[in-house]
Amino acid sequence: MRHTARHIENFKIISYRGLRALELQDLNEINILTGNNNSGKTSVLELLSSLRGPSSLSTWIKMCRMTRNGSYYKGILNLFPADTSRNIWYVCTTKSQNIKVVLDAAVQEVRVSENDVSEINGSDCQISHAARDGYTEAKCVQIQVITSFDEKAYDLYDFQTRMPKEESPLKIFPTEYVAPSAHVDGSILLDEVMESPKLYKDMMRILHEFDDSIMNITKSGNGTEYMILSDKYNKAMPLNVYGDGMKKALVLLAAVVKAKDGILLLDEFETAIHTSAMNNIFAWILHSAQNLNVQVFLSSHSLEAIDKVLKCAPDLQDKINLYTLYNKDGKNLVRKMSCKEAIKAQDDWGVELR
Fold this sequence. Notes:
single chain, 2 domains, 7-stranded antiparallel β-sheet, 6-stranded mixed β-sheet, 11 helices, 16 strands, about 30% helix, about 30% strand
């Protein structure tokens, strides 16, 4: 018997980045987030992703949107609201409990010995801070994480280039977050898909949405990349020679499987996928999520993509909600519609869903 893929029922954000007092109520098994740019869609998905292990510093570091050579110190501080005390706070309601997560941060001016700098960053580290009498002047953000289950404390220095060691975090839900550019800057892991005959057949159907000449997909001899056999070519070709749309579809396929019994977060999910392939791919994602007990959150500002999700699986329409996020007079507001309400409002009344 299939479980109901509704792990989170309400999600209230008291403060995070630019969000204040934003609440998503009566969440469904499939939830679409839309709204203008900077309305907070990505921030909501980011914060939901922290449920994988909210007391782990590495969980929050992954949310920092850091560049390749970015600073952990600056990245963490950018998660906190700029116009209030340094505090991140949210409450997540499930069927059985309320999960409260609070992060507090305080910045201190400190003097760190050269030995401690080496221990923090590694013996061969190079820092730009001026050292005097064997000490380095630095800033330290002291972070305290308080959840309904445990408490943790961390120090991050403005010269720090190596993640501090931490114990294995307590995990609340499996969460899988897919960024809009995941097909470009991330690796595609299809091992679980290729080990399941049913999922492999599903994958081949998705690949045929882009190229019906594809016959097979395997791993290369050294196991470092996927090779696609097609009757267009005399030999198997690496997946990377194919278009972004097909790679994005495979990223989504792998993410649904990896999120089993948890939460799938798809940010601007339609990126790189041509409209002609959207119906079948989106319908597969929604049905597969149901079968794998996955609650889905999708963000988009594309009316066409939203319309496709609302209509691609008529049998699932009772399981879909649409949440439109607004910024008005410095407040974060939410409009909630069921799938059928959203379709009627758009098609019959000409209401702008974004």
